[in-house]
Design a protein that fits this description.
Strand 4, helix 3 and strand 5 form a beta-alpha-beta unit. The chain has a domain of 192 residues: NAD(P)-binding Rossmann-like Domain (Rossmann fold), CATH 3.40.50.720. By secondary structure, the chain is α/β, with parallel strands linked by helices. The chain starts with a strand and ends with a helix. The mean pLDDT is 96. It is built from twelve helices and 13 strands. Helix 3 packs parallel to helix 4.
Length: 301
Amino acid sequence: MNVLISGGSGLIGSALSSSLLADGHNVWILTRDPSGTGLPAGAQPVRWDGRTNSGWLGVFSQMDAVVNLAGETVGKWPWNEARKKRILDSRVNAGHAIADAFQKVEKRPEVLIQSSGIGYYGPCGKAPITEEFPAGNDFMANVAAQWEASTRMVDVSLGVRRATIRTSLVLDARQGVLPLMALPVRFFAGGPLGSGQQGVSWIHIDDEVRAIRFLLENDAARGAFNLSAPNPISNADFLRSLAKVLSRPYWLPAPAFVLRTLLGEMSTLLLDGQFALPQRLVKLGFVFRYQSAEQAFRALF
């Protein structure tokens, strides 16, 4: 396949690109850096501004598939109004540019993978969450809903197969959130965050890439899919399992009020959660390699 990826230099994008290239596919990556610095070897950079499709429609018309992962990280502090606007705009603008490209080219790619997150559902307590659940109403839920909506017309108006991936916490030993979560554990200060009862839905980076490729290659894959391992656990059990694998004590809780005072609204990333289930992905036939958090941690560390 010829695959175009936006957000191809991030954790998921770079791992996906490397996997596709290793199997002989051709990968182009939309990037603000035309030199291609930091991209996987073999990926071809395509310059863009993050907002429009000016200059790359010719490349777009040669693609078999598009994967839209573009969006500013939510993990930078503080969440002031300017940063929240960048988080939202970076996603919506990229989605609109890609949807517009589908309209403009004569030969369209056959499939679009549209990124989103399980934050779409908002804080959900202890209820198991499937793809049928409605969107929440907090900041992250509103961002996810607008991110998904930015390319909806590709499916609705043009009939292009579109699969939306609502990704959970992606576990990787070197990038993403997990190395930061592991730091206090490594320094003998591991423990639950807040009540510790909030859900942690997670997925090993290898399963994330395999799931995206499964959806790319499966003609029956349309609509929303939770990309989350089938066994979500509480925050307390997640960090207890991490401490066990790293051979560290698990004892020092971080009070919720302290995290809210330090992080403000951003504390929702640590104190709220979901027990998301990959119901539609499993029903379609996908098999996870990493079923438990401890199994994933042992493979990573």
